[in-house]
Design goal:
- Helix content is 31%, strand content 26%.
- A hairpin with a 5-residue loop joins strand 1 and strand 2.
- It has a 3-stranded antiparallel beta sheet with strand order 2-1-3, sandwiched between helices.
- The radius of gyration is 12 Å and the shape is flat.
- The chain is α+β, with helices and mostly antiparallel strands.
- The structure holds zinc ion.
- Zinc ion binds next to loops.
Amino acid sequence: MSDNMSYLGVKRCGCAVAVVFDNPEHAKDVRETVAEFMQDGLTIERVSRDVAVDRLSRDCSHREESRP
Ligand SMILES: [Zn+2]
C-alpha cells in the first residue's frame, strides 16, 4: 500500500501532462495547483505516485493543442 498519492492533470485525449504530488503538509498549495489544472481544461485524476510518473513519461502524440 502506498500513501503517496498524486493528482494528475489529463487532457481530453487521455494523456497526462501535469501532476502535483499530494502533500498533507501543503494541502493548500496542492489544492491551488489542482485548481490551476482545471482552469487549463485538464481533467483531474487521483492516482498513486507510481502511476502518475508512468503516465507522465509517455509523450502525447495527439497534438490536440488549443487553437488561438
Ligand atoms: Zn494525447
